Amino acid sequence: MNNSIPAGMGALLKAVIAAVSWCRQKRSCRDISRWRISTRADGSLCTEADLAAQSALTKKLQAILNVPVLGEEMTSAVQLELWMAGHDGLWCIDPIDGTSNFVRGLPYFAVSVALVRAGESVMGVVYDPVANEMFAAERQRGAFLNGEKLVGREAVGDLAQSMACVDMKRLKKKLAARLAADPPYSSQRNFGASALDWCYTAAGRYDMYLHGGQKLWDYAAGSLILAESGGHACCIENDEFTQCDIWLRSVIAARDRKLFDAWKSWIRAQQ
Fold first, then answer.
1. What would the pLDDT profile of 169-201 be if each residue is shown by its tens digit?
2. CA 79/CA 105 separation, integer angstroms
3. Rounded CA gap, 21 and 126, in Å?
């Protein structure tokens, strides 16, 4: 990882990046066999690694800025209580986004940290420990990848040439069926870690992104990284991404404005 810090990166963001890096060094993301695995009520997986990383991150982040920390591995009642208490500042973390990949040894998972104020993300960090890639952004200061300004690849010309990242599981049946039978793009991927999906879209590795419903910790950091890289996002049902359901928010996104408008129009025509 490039340790040089560009002038546009503020002291608070530097401190968060350092905290995420420290937690990575202290918690092995590769020795999967030693972590005990449990299943939540909704069927999703949780490991001791998730809980250990959440605890370590909470301590580090509150030492940087002492505001509530809302983590994925908390109960919904506690999450709601913290959200209500954190209007002036709230850390939102997913200690391992892509836990199912992590426990199976699939190298597509990440640590996600966001600072939220008045319901909107003002800082975000997503770290991929396998690729050793640190994506970061601060509102109105730009997005970064490993300490350098994030400059994504040039967008393709139109929908027919594009690669889309599409998560089918929460899409309406009509839209999902159309995407399966007659998609408007040339190729589609989904590897199961929403925070990285946002970052890959910001970097131009995916041209477009679609998700039927994400949790707060899935989009809090990644959506800001995309926005600060020059990208665009909305919900399926609303043009204003920040005005959609906090707890289960659909996503239409692309880095290129022309492609974003075409993608959004196509999706909404299938509703």
1. 899 999 999 999 999 999 999 999 999 999 999
2. 29
3. 11
